[in-house]
Design a protein that fits this description.
Layout lengths: L7 E7 L6 H13 L4 E6 L14 H12 L4 E4 L1 H5 L4 H11 L4 E7 H6 L6 H7 L2 E4 L5 H5 L2 H5 L4 E2 L15 E4 L8 H13 L15
Parallel strand pairs: 1-2, 1-4, 2-3, 4-5, 5-7, 6-7
Helix pairs in contact: 4-6
């Protein structure tokens, strides 16, 4: 990944199964509001909380993510393979050792804040790296009432101070209520399956309405 001394780097982790415009949108918001130099999409070999079934091969997900990113300040990487890490806390620890002068910020949607208490060593994640959370449709209210939000409530920063987040002493986190793209990887996979198994209709057949 090269020398990243003194740079402010956002980390967006996930399966990217597949990557989509929602990932790109959250990255663009992070670059704008957090004054970051770049963002790394950390394509996970296998998310411990997600089933192996239906997971595309890592190389395919990395290539597809690179095709979606198409941004000079976004880098797509499978560095967790090199680091040999499976959990976010371990990945953050390894990255801090490998790039000791870099300032990292963990990026995630409100849906992940809501369930981060299920992650391995989740409180350590807050203590290792500042966190920026972005609103997602239908998740924001429950996320702000979640165990993690309540546990670290006094360490929450105002969005107006977010440009200082990368260098802030941890724990530190910010929540952006910015309206996000509702697209999700799950919705894309469902749509793909429907298109594969949808019956073919003759060109001369009368139009019909599809019931989903």
């Amino acid at each position: 990944m090269g020398d990243r001394r003194t740079r402010k780097i956002g980390l967006l982790g996930g399966s990217f199964n597949p990557a989509h415009r929602g990932h790109l949108h959250i990255s663009q918001l992070a670059l704008k509001h957090l004054d970051l130099d770049e963002i790394w999409w950390l394509v996970s070999p296998q998310n411990p909380l997600k089933p192996v079934t239906g997971m595309a091969p890592l190389a395919e997900r990395v290539a597809q993510a690179a095709a979606v990113a198409q941004h000079s300040h976004i880098r797509v990487t499978d560095i967790e393979v090199t680091l040999g890490t499976h959990y976010t806390a371990d990945t953050l620890t390894a990255l801090r050792k490998r790039f000791p002068a870099a300032h990292f910020v963990w990026l995630m949607g409100a849906d992940n804040l809501r369930q981060i208490a299920r992650w391995e060593s989740w409180t350590e994640i807050f203590r290792l790296t500042p966190i920026a959370v972005f609103a997602r449709p239908a998740y924001s209210l429950s996320a702000l009432g979640s165990l993690a939000a309540r546990r670290f409530a006094r360490h929450r920063m105002f969005p107006g101070s977010a440009r200082r987040l990368a260098a802030a002493p941890t724990p530190a986190w910010v929540f952006f209520a910015t309206r996000l793209d509702p697209l999700s990887a799950t919705a894309i996979r469902v749509r793909r399956r429907r298109s594969v198994f949808a019956p073919r209709v003759r060109n001369d057949a009368p139009a019909t309405s599809q019931i989903s």
